[in-house]
């Protein structure tokens, strides 16, 4: 699922009330620093905290709430979340383990939000929220269903700023979700 957003004065004003900053003198194409990207996981206390790994019980009804944040004092232009969905094994409910190449079903679709400056304003920080919800499964041909125990789903968050320099315009962070 791709989202395309045109930044308006109203959005920037609303963003201020959500603690998302705005810059009023437009994007800086000469920005010499890359954006800061963070992946946060919602804890049991309801608060999001930075993380580099997490776990999810694949055959449960558990969910893992994620927040990717892209920040840059010179303005952010886009944010994207992508997920790996591959497992080298698939285990049936009866415990039989099959080796091979399996697609993990139930992994969220990629999400992208592109921003455009408007009336001289750009956002300096933007979050993108997602939920990875179990059960996650795999299919064993011809008709068996199983679970990808021991696999991992890698969440990739990509943040971009307005820099014209490809070495400072993009930052990528990953989070490994261990499936148990």
Descriptive overview:
This protein is mainly beta. It has a single domain (2-179), classed as Immunoglobulins (Immunoglobulin-like). 5% of the residues lie in helices and 51% in strands. It is elongated. Mean pLDDT is 88; it is low at 1-11 and 13-19.
Radius of gyration over all CA atoms, rounded: 19 Å
- Quick one: how many beta strands? 16
Distance between the termini: 27 Å
Structural class based on helices, strands and sheet pairing: mainly beta
User: Shape from CA axes?
Assistant: elongated
Bin the helical content.
under 10%
Low-confidence segments, given as residue ranges, are: 1-11, 13-19
Which strand order does the major sheet show? 1-10-7-15-16-5
CATH superfamily: Immunoglobulins
Order of helices and strands: EHEEEEEEEEEEEEEEE
**CATH fold topology:** Immunoglobulin-like
Strand content: over 45%
């Amino acid at each position: 699922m791709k989202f395309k957003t045109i930044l308006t004065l109203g959005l920037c004003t609303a963003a201020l009330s959500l603690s998302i900053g705005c810059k009023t003198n437009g994007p800086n194409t000469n920005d010499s620093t890359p954006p800061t990207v963070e992946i946060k996981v919602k804890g049991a206390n309801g608060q999001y905290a930075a993380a580099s790994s997490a776990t999810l019980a694949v055959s449960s009804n558990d969910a893992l709430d994620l927040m990717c944040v892209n920040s840059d004092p010179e303005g952010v232009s886009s944010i994207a979340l992508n997920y790996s969905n591959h497992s080298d094994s698939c285990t049936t409910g009866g415990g039989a383990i099959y080796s091979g190449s399996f697609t993990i079903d139930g992994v969220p679709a990629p999400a992208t939000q592109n921003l455009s400056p408007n009336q001289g304003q750009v956002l300096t920080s933007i979050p993108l929220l997602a939920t990875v919800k179990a059960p996650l499964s795999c299919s064993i041909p011809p008709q068996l269903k199983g679970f990808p125990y021991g696999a991992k789903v890698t969440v990739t968050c990509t943040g971009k700023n307005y820099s014209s320099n490809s070495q400072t315009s993009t930052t990528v962070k990953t989070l490994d979700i261990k499936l148990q």
